[in-house]
Design goal:
heterodimer, A: 112 residues, mainly alpha, 4 helices, elongated, B: 129 residues, 3 helical TM bundles of succinate and fumarate reductases
Chain lengths: 112, 129
């Protein structure tokens, strides 16, 4: 191994890995949802499903994964197509703020 | 000594229109487009989840909303975006662990992703309509 430091932050590898781990969490949730999805659907059965503690927990884990996954993906889109540094920074900050707000919104929906 | 300047001036015509892309390239750009669509749809997803869990009348309201023809088209587009992103993502995970990386296998799996996600979308769309 060549002993040299090319970049210090390692955020490339971290994000690469985070993208895959969050994808697997969402895949697991999708399979879980197909199993527990109430049939026939009604307000009573839908509400009963989401009043279970484990369902709220699992759904929140899925949404948290989704927000991290979306951040990496959307950031890549901004980096690829928006060349103006100031505009790109503004879009990236707006994306982070929006996704953070969505995390709060999701908690409020799940733990009413 | 060959004249390199003449060679360098040869016209390069890269036709990058999506229709000219090989299937793995098509799956790749659709992976990005579907991801962007899902990001835009996140607000609708959270809104509908909130509405449907809020009350009996909210649940009915969410149902009525989803049954409106214009919304139904958006729902079907979202289902395609979800399924394509899911299938392309699973293919990507296999490629990451060096499964199916030969040109032949990668082209075949890309075609499977494209066809399976479209076929599933069509079968769900028929049932929804």
């Amino acid at each position: 191994m060549v002993n040299r430091v090319i970049v210090g932050a390692h955020y490339g590898l971290k994000d690469w890995l985070a993208q895959r781990v969050t994808a697997l969490v969402m895949l697991a949730y999708t399979l879980l949802f197909l199993v527990v999805w109430p049939r026939p659907m009604s307000y009573a059965s839908w509400n009963a499903l989401f009043s279970q503690g484990w369902m709220r927990f699992a759904t929140f884990l899925m949404i948290a994964s989704l927000l991290i996954h979306a951040w990496i993906g959307v950031r890549n889109i901004w980096m690829d197509y928006v060349k103006h540094t100031g505009v790109r920074l503004a879009l990236q900050v707006a994306t982070i703020l929006w996704l953070t707000g969505c995390a709060g919104w999701a908690m409020q929906i799940l733990w009413r | 000594m060959p004249d390199l300047t003449v060679k360098r001036r040869r016209p390069l015509w890269f036709n990058l229109s999506p229709l000219n892309l090989p299937v793995p390239g098509l799956v790749s750009i659709f992976h990005r487009v579907s991801g962007a669509l899902l990001f835009l749809g996140l607000v609708a997803f959270l809104y509908l989840l909130e509405l449907s869990l809020a009350s009996e009348s909210g649940y009915a309201q969410a149902g009525d909303l989803l049954r409106a023809p214009a919304v139904k088209l958006l729902v079907i587009a979202s289902i395609w975006a979800f399924l394509h992103h899911l299938c392309a993502g699973i293919r990507h995970l296999f490629l990451d662990i060096d499964v199916g990386v030969s040109l032949h296998a990668a082209r075949r799996s890309a075609l499977i992703v494209l066809v399976v996600s479209l076929a599933l979308t069509a079968s769900i769309a028929v049932r929804l309509w």
